[in-house]
UniProtKB/TrEMBL annotation:
Membrane topology: Single-pass membrane protein
Cellular localization per UniProt: Membrane
Keywords of the record: Membrane, Transmembrane, Transmembrane helix
UniProt GO cellular component terms: cortical cytoskeleton; membrane
Lineage: Eukaryota, Metazoa, Chordata, Craniata, Vertebrata
Domain Neurexin/syndecan/glycophorin C as annotated: residue spans: 28-46
Keyword Transmembrane helix among record annotations: yes
Transmembrane segments: 12-33
Protein name: Neurexin/syndecan/glycophorin C domain-containing protein
Organism, scientific name: Knipowitschia caucasica (Caucasian dwarf goby)
Domain of life of the native organism: Eukaryota
Amino acid sequence: MDDGYLEAVVGAVIATVVVVLLVTALVVIRYMFRHKGSYLTNEAKGTEFAETADAALRKDPALKDAMDRKEYFV
């Protein structure tokens, strides 16, 4: 009476589990390679040796125009 139905169900379940594990492993590996922990900053070059933050920003040419004018806060 058993036509191999039980073996087919067990095989399908095992195959599904294997496929899910493979897809999960691929997603985890891809995530690990894409998120290495390195990042880029937009800090001015050469500011790591400045005595204070103000001294470092005074040398930045992009901020030179903004520092020339005075602003008063009331």
